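Pasting as-is:
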Amino acid sequence: MTKIKLCGMMAPEDVTAACELGADMVGFILTDGFRRSVSHEAFTRMRSILDGHTAKAVGVFVDEPIEAVLRYADMLDMIQLHGSEDDNYIKAVGAASGKPVIKAFKVKSTEDIADARKSAADFVLLDSGTGTGMTFDHTLIEGIDRTFFLAGGLTADNVAGAIEKIRPYAVDVSSSLETGGHKDRSKMTEFVRAVRGKER
């Protein structure tokens, strides 16, 4: 069954909705400077909502010192890296935190897929950018032989087709879940139903 990661949580009600809808993973942007970034205090409050639920907490970081990532490690189930982190960094973070590491790759060409295939990360995330809400050429993925997350421009309207064609381990979505810059529970519901409905 395809895993669902709902990312860019900014408010407690977003996390509550994700849990109630049965998301497998919930993502938080923990590097400052992005529209969906949340503070350590805000994250701590939202993270507590996951207690008693099966959804895993994923912390998203961009080119942070390892010490900054480790500040959150005890509260995370997985660590996602969205910057220029190399294999040495990935291995160091994984070893120091003891948590699985997801490395994001912006896919523009087959060379990007080749880099993803070789990554030291536990999982790779194939994306069109950083929260752009745009898709990329999915034919570039053909033949990839490792577990990956699919992101970039996924919506309730196109996710079932993408799953059928590409067979990702997980789908990752943020932008298309929003209305007016805030998570919209109805859009979250539609997305989860589109994924789960495909699998029935």
